[in-house]
Every structure is written in C-alpha cells, then in structure tokens.
Write a structure and sequence with these properties.
The chain is 45% helix and 23% strand. It is α+β, with helices and mostly antiparallel strands. The chain has four domains: 66 residues, Orthogonal Bundle (Arc Repressor Mutant, subunit A); 49 residues; 95 residues, SH3 type barrels (Roll); 78 residues, no CATH class. A five-stranded antiparallel sheet has the order 6-5-4-3-7. It has a four-stranded antiparallel sheet with strand order 9-10-8-11. Strand 3 and strand 4 form a beta hairpin.
Length: 328
C-alpha cells in the first residue's frame, strides 16, 4: 500500500482499538516497525492527537474527541453512504469513478464485523440504471467544473427539433437531474437570458477565457420548476378541477410534478385542484386516461368532454391500425 493508505490504516486501527503498540501496527500492516514510528510522527505533525503511553501496558491511542471527527463514520453512516452511492448510479452521476474509489476505500478500512454488516445491507439494495454513457459523463463533469469556477463555455447544441448543431456561449449556473435526464441552467449569451439545456443534446463543450459571477442566491432547481410550472398570467381564468378516486390514485395526483402544485383541498378519496384553463384541457385528460376507470371527474364538464373526445380519437386510431394489420 502507499504511504497515505498505510497512514490512514493506522488511524483506523487506533480508532477501533483502545490502545495498540508499534509492534502490533507493524504486524498488522506488514511494514517495518521503524516505518510505523515515521508514520506516527507524520500524523502527529499533521495535527492528529495521538497519545503515546510507555510501560508494560503502553502503546498508542487517540484522544476521545478525535474519534468523532468527520473522517470516521459509524455503521449507520457507512451504510447510508454506500447505499447513496448505489442510488446515485441511476442518475449517471458525473464522478462515478471517484465515488466507487471512495466506497472501496470506506469498505477497506472497516473491521470484519462492519464489513459483513455492510455487505448484508447492500446485497438486496439495487437500482435499475441505463447503460453508462461516457460522453454524457464527460459533459456533466465539464459543466460541474464550470459552475464551480465561474467559467464561460462554448457549446455545440442540438435543438429539440433535430436541426443542425448550433454554437452558443453559456454561463452555467447549475445542473439539475429531472425525470431521468440531466439539464444545465445557464445564461445564454445568444438569447441574452436564462435558459435550460438538455445535457444529452450537448455535442461538445469548450472552455473559454471569459469568467462570470454566479448569483449567490440562485437556485437552479427553483428556476427549472418555474420553467416547467409557469405562474398563471394576470387575469387568466382559473378552473376548479375536482376528482374522485381510490386513496392511492388521489395520492398520485398530489405527488404529480405538475398537478401536485395546484392542490387546494384533499380528502381520502377526493381532491380539488385549481388550474389554468389551458393546462386543464391540454394535460389533465392524458393523465386521466393513463389511469383507466380509476377516476371520476366531478367538475368541470369541459374536462369530461375533452377526455371523452381524446379517448374516442385514440380508440379510432387503434381500430384503424387493426384494420390495416388485417388487410396486410
């Protein structure tokens, strides 16, 4: 092992044992005892409070308060970190290699009982994740670095319509993970306003010499949610939507990314929303159809009519598809 690994091993051994001798450290780490003395001196010089007791029952130990330092984690903290690392894999976390090294190091310096406990708690904890995308990971790493350093980037970006790649300069303010995709919220020099961009549509990034200052109170997630759920315009008509359904279905409405923000009343089997007219007829029918006969619309009647028209249109679409398949 490297010098750093050996010194960290000494710290862990001192933490897990009340007192340990230089010879015991030498035997445990399979290094010369004089090397142990050098490492102990180096740790003391760096500020680690190691106490050396002489005599028959002497040895090295740590001051009690140091064992509570952030370097050391109890078993619950270790379990939480390892499981969080597994969960982060689903999002395509941009520093996966470093995260895996950290988890490996954490496991390496646990004692046998802690290691067995961690293995039991992670054996049944799994996340279904998409295939690794090295190009996306590199883009996210560069975006995250730019946010931290306040460095303007040049970006080649493919718009949603699939048009030719467009080059623009951006000041990245933050990156957001939303419903399986990564986005960067950035000031766009081309449009001269804040915009959000899908990270997987970024074809290339280049660092520039220009710098920017990120607003100290800026929240990329708050901006992103406002972009998804715009405030109703002044004097815009708001429509009351009342639904009746099973407790689970009502819960789904209240947790929905769009509808949940509009809940004004809720009981076990009923929920009342207040939406703008456009959203009521443009989005809610699709939500209702995905639940089949689970919901009953109590109001407004326009929502019932729009949902019925959409269902009829879909029915005709698939009947036509079935007729075409029969002819072929």
């Amino acid at each position: 092992m490297s010098k750093a690994d050996n010194m960290l091993s000494i710290l862990w051994l001192l933490k897990t044992r009340k007192r340990v001798t230089a010879q015991q450290l030498s035997d445990e780490l399979e290094i010369h005892i004089r090397t142990v003395y050098r490492y102990i001196d180096a740790l003391c010089a760096s500020g680690v409070p190691i106490v050396a007791d002489s005599g028959h029952n002497g040895g090295y130990s740590l001051l009690d308060h140091f064992t509570d330092a952030p370097l050391f984690f109890d078993l619950e903290e270790q379990k939480a970190l390892v499981q969080a690392a597994i969960f982060a894999q689903e999002s395509g976390f941009p520093h996966g290699d470093a995260m895996n090294r950290a988890v490996s190091k954490l496991k390496r310096y646990t004692n046998a009982e802690q290691h067995r406990t961690l293995e039991r708690h992670t054996a049944g904890f799994e996340v279904i994740r998409p295939p690794a995308d090295a190009a996306l990971e590199a883009v996210l790493q560069q975006l995250e670095q730019s946010v931290a350093e306040g460095r303007t980037l040049g970006m080649d970006y493919v718009k949603r319509s699939g048009e030719a790649t467009e080059n623009r300069s951006i000041d990245p303010y933050g990156i957001v993970y939303w419903k399986g995709s990564w986005y960067v919220v950035a000031y766009c020099h081309l449009r001269r306003e804040l915009r959000s961009f899908r990270a997987d549509r970024i074809q290339a990034l280049s660092t520039t010499d220009a710098v920017f200052e990120r607003p100290p109170s800026f929240s990329a997630s708050d901006y992103f949610l406002k972009y998804l759920i715009p405030e109703p315009a002044v004097n815009e008509d708001l429509v009351a939507v009342e639904l009746e359904g099973s407790p689970r279905a009502i819960g789904d409405v209240c947790r929905h990314w769009l509808l949940g923000h509009t809940v004004i009343e809720r009981s076990e089997r009923r929920v009342k929303l207040r939406l703008d007219a456009k959203s009521t007829l443009a989005y809610v029918p699709y939500f209702l159809l995905s639940y089949g006969k689970t919901f009953r619309v109590l109001e407004p009647s326009s929502l019932i009519e729009q949902t019925a028209e959409l269902a009829a249109d879909l029915c005709e679409y698939y009947r036509a598809m079935n007729r075409d398949a029969a002819h072929n």
